[in-house]
Amino acid sequence: MGGLAMFLAVAEERSFTRAAAKLGVSPSALSHAIRRLEQRMDVRLLTRTTRSVAPTEAGERLMETVAPAFDEIDARIAALTELRSRPAGTVRITTSEHAARTLLWPAIDRIVADYPDIKVELNVQSGLTDIVAERFDAGVRLGERLEQDMVAVRIGPRLRMATVGSPAYLAKCGAPKSPDDLTRHACINLRMVNGSIYQWEYGRGGRELKVKVDGPVVLNDVDLIVAAASAGHGLAHLVDDRVAPLLAKGALVRVLDDWCEPFDGYYLYYPSRRQPSAAFSLILEALRYRD
């Protein structure tokens, strides 16, 4: 196995032990290979302490150079599975919880049952991820957040937000007539993964608004926000399919309906230079949205 591949494994894992287990070699052999590479290049690539390993500036530059090449090699090798009778291989996708639950999992549930040689890893997180740096095959984002140098495939319908409150809360405090009225209401805030508070977004007739709201509760879990709104602690602002059953039962009531216009839904995106494997192409077609 080449020294560059070994270096990349250590740099990504930030550990000789984990990288050795991943590569199937001993930590000692791995350490010797990295030293030989550093001697050959006459530059230190890794900073080693008793507790951690991290790339130096030269190591970071080397990662930026060789990681895309190794990704391309992996993709082309994976593409050879098209010669097999059944698609095979691992597909890694980073996605939000909402997209994973509503769109990805229903399709993947069927695929892994029908194609036992395919392995799918879903990495569910709220923040935006650099799929090239993190070596994911694809990511899922809302259409408005897509990067320009990616191939993007629509995988879901347009979405719509819903501002809701319980009948008891609305009977006590009244319903807001416009987004500006929200500053006089108790609102249940969402703490984003980056630590910021989500600003409620509205639009009507080409006019867009972002409103900073306040209230007695700040949560970072959507299910808890739904529970808090249902219990009458204030208004909530969520994707409408999260509250549709409660709206149908009358446990929650929609307000500001005319300010909640549809917006671009989810897209699966991946680097344009990457040659999709048979397994990835199968998943892509299963997810592709058809009106």
From TrEMBL:
The keyword ATP-binding does not apply. It comes from the Bacteria. InterPro entries: LysR-type_TF_proteobact-type, LysR_HTH_N, LysR_subst-bd, WH-like_DNA-bd_sf, WH_DNA-bd_sf. Gene3D superfamilies: 3.40.190.290, Winged helix-like DNA-binding domain superfamily/Winged helix DNA-binding domain. Keywords: DNA-binding, Transcription, Transcription regulation. It holds the Pfam family LysR_substrate. Belongs to the LysR transcriptional regulatory family. NodD regulates the expression of the nodABCFE genes which encode other nodulation proteins. NodD is also a negative regulator of its own expression. Binds flavonoids as inducers. This is LysR family transcriptional regulator. It comes from Bradyrhizobium denitrificans.
